[in-house]
């Protein structure tokens, strides 16, 4: 067997071991993370809004204020992870967010709900960009989009499974411990983050050089491969941390991510409400659990599309159109959803939007890693994520406010479409990486 075949087999073996060791656990962490972030979307139309006296605008504000807290500490948190290591820092994040998420079960009024949602954002800051950064420590550039896709498949999976789980907890948990169903859901879904923090501390490995679960030859190959790529990136682009935090290209990428996330959060927070509105619009009659199952369908299809599309992007080494095309699909589809004559056609349009959002997400994160490394990657990725996630505040707040003003979801969904299409045009203009550092 020649040396090229030996090297290829070594690479395949190492990356398989890394994927099997890390990806299922990271997906589980993100599943719990994302569920705790968006479960307010299920609580709202299932008793919380009525019990706390929330208008659509206040509900949207409470949903979105999370991301203001998230924005404040995102960059410092990711720099801390780069300094102290993922194992310790992710465990710290999970304990604090788990405590806040659990306390939300006992919220007495709208003001307290808003405060706790803000604190939840502060607690979670750094989790997502921290794992995106962590994946760059373990996967070479050619396999990175697929790795991110496998990790981010937890988003549509948590939205799909989480929709059903949350609906079952709300329906079956009403009266348990004397709590309303939506309060019981917050309580049950907050605890896993605290428990998983302890597992994270002992299970994760910060860097390949420390991985005792890899053979010495495997550790040496992976560490050498990643170090070589980092040297090439720094030689070609050489972006220091200050440049990564101030360059217009980073701000432009943040808007692109804003567009993707705007669609994601508009769906996440208001799809249950939209489906609940089918009863008035189309005469449907769905139970809480049935509504959860219907909500799950677009995300289940989106999860498959996410992995398949990212794998295709890795094979072809093309990134820009693998971000832009699904964004255009999602942006065109979502405003159409509520103009259609029956719930099946409306759900088909919503599903196209979910597929577009999910397919664009993982490949997007291959764009900044083309020219960022080290501390610049930690800061730049965190800044893109934090600014982009302002959409998590804007999407539910604007959608809710337009619902209150117009009496319909249509205006809010038109805004979603416009933002996604504009972001798609921008990523085409930017192309994959700067020509020079």
Automatic annotation (TrEMBL):
The chain crosses the membrane at residues 18-35, 55-73, 89-108, 114-135, 147-170, 182-204, 250-271, 291-309, 321-340, 346-367, 374-399, 411-433. It is found in: Cell membrane. The keyword Nucleotidyltransferase does not apply. Its main location: membrane. InterPro entries: MFS, MFS_dom, MFS_trans_sf. Residues 22-435 form the Major facilitator superfamily (MFS) profile domain. Keywords: Membrane, Transmembrane, Transmembrane helix, Transport. It is a multi-pass membrane protein. This is MFS transporter.
């Amino acid at each position: 067997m020649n040396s090229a075949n030996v090297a290829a087999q070594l690479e395949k073996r190492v990356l398989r071991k890394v994927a099997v060791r890390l990806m299922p656990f990271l997906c589980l962490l993100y599943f719990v993370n994302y569920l705790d972030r968006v479960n307010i979307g299920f609580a709202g139309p299932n008793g919380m809004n009525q019990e706390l006296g929330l208008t659509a605008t206040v509900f949207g504000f409470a949903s979105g204020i999370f991301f203001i807290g998230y924005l404040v500490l995102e960059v410092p948190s990711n720099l801390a992870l780069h300094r102290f290591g993922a194992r310790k820092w992710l465990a710290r994040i999970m304990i604090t967010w788990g405590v806040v998420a659990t306390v939300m079960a006992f919220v007495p009024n709208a003001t307290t709900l808003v405060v706790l949602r803000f604190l939840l954002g502060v607690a979670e800051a750094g989790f997502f960009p921290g794992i995106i950064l962590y994946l760059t420590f373990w996967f070479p550039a050619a396999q990175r989009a697929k790795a991110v896709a496998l990790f981010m498949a937890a988003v549509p999976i948590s939205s799909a499974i989480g929709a059903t789980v949350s609906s079952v907890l709300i329906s079956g948990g009403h009266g348990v411990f004397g709590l309303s169903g939506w309060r019981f859901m917050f309580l049950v879904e907050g605890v896993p983050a605290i428990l998983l923090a302890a597992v994270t501390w002992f299970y994760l490995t910060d860097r390949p050089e420390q991985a005792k679960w890899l053979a010495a030859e495997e550790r040496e190959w992976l560490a050498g491969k990643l170090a070589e790529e980092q040297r090439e990136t720094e030689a070609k682009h050489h972006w220091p941390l200050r440049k990564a935090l101030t360059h217009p290209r980073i701000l432009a990428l943040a808007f692109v991510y804003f567009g993707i996330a705007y669609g994601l959060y508009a769906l996440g927070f208001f799809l249950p409400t939209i489906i609940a509105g089918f009863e008035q619009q189309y005469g449907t009659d769905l139970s809480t659990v049935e509504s959860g199952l219907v909500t799950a369908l677009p995300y289940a299809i989106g999860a498959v599309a996410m992995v398949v599309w990212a794998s295709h992007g890795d094979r072809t080494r093309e990134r820009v159109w693998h971000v832009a095309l699904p964004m255009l699909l999602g942006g065109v589809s979502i405003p159409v959803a509520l103009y259609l004559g029956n719930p099946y056609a409306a759900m088909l349009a919503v599903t196209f939007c979910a597929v577009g959002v999910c397919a664009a997400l993982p490949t997007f994160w291959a764009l900044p890693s083309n020219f960022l490394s080290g501390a610049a990657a930690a800061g730049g990725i965190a800044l893109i994520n934090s600014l982009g996630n302002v959409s998590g505040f804007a999407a539910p707040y604007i959608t809710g406010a337009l619902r209150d003003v117009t009496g319909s979801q249509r205006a809010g969904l038109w805004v979603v479409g416009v933002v996604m299409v504009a972001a798609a045009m921008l990523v085409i203009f930017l192309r994959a990486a700067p020509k020079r550092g």
